[in-house]
């Protein structure tokens, strides 16, 4: 062996480290071989000689050689010794690109077109907690002790079939519990076999799209709508068609009605993000339109459990008489987002097909988690938790709305505060809600700009989505005062710019 390499190995091994010597020496050899410091065909010294040079046991070197041979770095020739294998890649026939152009390319340019589109349209926030993050429940109120007790009980009686891949649409007792829960709370028309367990609304939508749509199909989406829906459709090769929303919900024009889509995705019980409720007349129109034209309707029921002053509304699915509605929901809002448990209710004739598609595409599991959730529902803890949190969130909503009206009267209207975990604070049409969001974040306040939920800047309204569910009572007032200072500061900046340009 080249004595300089032997010295290098010895110097590296002399550095303090908690890692075993054989692992360090293996890594050093790999590093030297891959970098070309030890060329292909080089004969390595015997394990005895190298052990003496490095001051380590011969067995350690033998172990290292065996590991290198197993991974293809060296080859052993009986009676001859150990040699470095030729691992240089064969690039003959491959097109040559300049090293300079490769390194000059930015990472996002190496993505696929749909990958770049996904990143460009992403609305994911780096902050997922605090005043006034929309759509996040107060996870600190979750009954951890109750859940842990149920979970421990489930694990003590764990069976092999509960620890392998899930089949048939999910854990049967949980599907039965959910079917009963949805029949009572949402007037859903479903049997346990129609309930398909997923990891959340995103996966439910993805499965519905994959099973029912082809690349290029048009899909109606509400305008404004949740940014994740548009992103999912675009990344799947579908064409989202924005349909405006009024006080009665999704409101297609005559021109739009003349071109039926493959699918319609909507939020009838609590439009996201504006908060309106789809009227019965509009629901019946949508169902009849789907029947006449063979459209699928996906009903996204993301937070209907939290309505203040009136009972939860009946689902659109419960009115469907022709099997055109797919209902999707999750436990992210009623329990906690990290649970990652969602569900969909599909027409009875499609249930086996969706269950098979789910298993084939995603290889579902989480049966032990689903078993714990089923017990949580059967023993009444879900209903108790929802009632308790509904009262808590109603109090926080009231504190926030009073703070807004105390500061602004009716100058800044409040939208969509009758239900859910957020409200919308409307801003003057030309005010820059992006600027407010940026400056608020610098002061520790998280809000979302309403304009990002619209498909076009020309039709977008300016406003702020404000979540109140995860904000302690005593924090709401001071946090809003900070936000109000930012809003007023941005208004003055805008007024100053307008005067300079006039």
UniProtKB/TrEMBL annotation:
GO MF terms held by the record: DNA binding; DNA-binding transcription factor activity; pyridoxal phosphate binding
Source domain of life: Bacteria
Residue ranges annotated for the HTH gntR-type domain, each copy included: 19-87
Region (Disordered): 89-112
InterPro entries in the record: Aminotransferase_I/II_large (IPR004839), HTH_trans_reg/aminotransferase (IPR051446), PyrdxlP-dep_Trfase (IPR015424), PyrdxlP-dep_Trfase_major (IPR015421), Tscrpt_reg_HTH_GntR (IPR000524), WH-like_DNA-bd_sf (IPR036388), WH_DNA-bd_sf (IPR036390)
Family matches, as PANTHER family: HTH-TYPE TRANSCRIPTIONAL REGULATORY PROTEIN GABR
Protein name: DNA-binding protein
């Amino acid at each position: 062996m080249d004595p300089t390499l032997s010295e290098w190995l010895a110097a590296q091994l002399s550095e303090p480290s908690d890692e075993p010597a054989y692992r360090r020496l293996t890594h050093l050899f790999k590093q030297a071989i891959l970098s070309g410091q030890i060329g292909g065909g080089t004969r390595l010294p015997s394990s005895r000689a190298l052990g003496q040079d490095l001051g380590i046991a011969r067995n350690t070197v033998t172990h290292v050689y065996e590991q290198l041979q197993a991974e293809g770095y060296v080859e052993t020739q009986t009676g001859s010794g150990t040699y470095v294998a030729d691992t240089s890649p064969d690039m003959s026939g491959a097109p040559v690109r300049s090293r300079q152009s490769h390194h000059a390319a930015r990472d996002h340019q190496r993505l696929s077109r749909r990958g770049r589109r996904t990143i460009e349209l992403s609305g994911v926030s780096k902050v997922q907690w605090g005043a006034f993050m929309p759509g996040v429940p107060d996870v600190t109120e979750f009954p951890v002790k109750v859940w842990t007790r149920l979970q421990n009980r489930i694990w003590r009686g764990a069976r092999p079939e509960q620890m392998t891949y899930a089949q048939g649409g999910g854990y049967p007792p949980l599907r039965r519990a959910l079917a009963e829960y949805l029949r009572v709370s949402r007037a859903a028309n479903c049997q346990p076999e129609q309930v398909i367990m997923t990891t959340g609304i995103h996966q439910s939508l993805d499965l519905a799209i994959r099973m029912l749509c082809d690349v290029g199909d048009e899909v109606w989406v509400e305008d404004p709508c949740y940014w994740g829906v548009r992103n999912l459709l675009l990344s799947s090769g579908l064409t989202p068609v924005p349909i405006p929303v009024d006080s009665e919900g999704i409101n297609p024009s005559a021109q739009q009605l003349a071109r039926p889509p493959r699918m319609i995705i909507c939020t009838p019980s609590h439009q996201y993000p504006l908060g309106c409720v789809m009227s019965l007349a509009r629901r019946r129109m949508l169902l009849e339109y789907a029947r006449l034209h063979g459209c699928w309707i996906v009903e996204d029921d993301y937070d209907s459990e939290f309505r203040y002053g009136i009972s939860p509304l009946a689902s659109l699915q419960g009115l469907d008489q022709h099997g055109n509605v797919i209902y999707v929901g999750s436990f992210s809002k009623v329990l906690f987002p990290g649970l990652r448990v969602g569900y969909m209710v599909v027409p009875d004739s499609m249930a086996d097909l969706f269950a098979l598609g789910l298993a084939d595409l995603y290889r579902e599991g989480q049966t032990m988690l689903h078993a714990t959730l089923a017990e949580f529902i059967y023993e009444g803890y879900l209903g108790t938790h929802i009632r308790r949190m509904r009262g808590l969130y109603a109090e926080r909503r009231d504190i926030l709305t009073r703070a807004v009206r105390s500061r602004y009267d009716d100058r800044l209207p409040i939208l969509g505060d009758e239900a859910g975990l957020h409200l919308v604070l409307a801003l003057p049409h030309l005010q820059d809600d992006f600027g407010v969001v940026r400056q608020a974040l610098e002061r520790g306040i998280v809000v979302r700009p309403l304009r990002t939920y619209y498909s076009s800047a020309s039709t977008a309204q300016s406003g702020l989505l404000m979540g109140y569910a995860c904000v302690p009572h005593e924090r709401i007032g001071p946090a809003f005062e900070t936000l109000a200072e930012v809003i007023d500061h941005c208004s003055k900046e805008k007024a100053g710019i307008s005067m300079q340009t006039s």
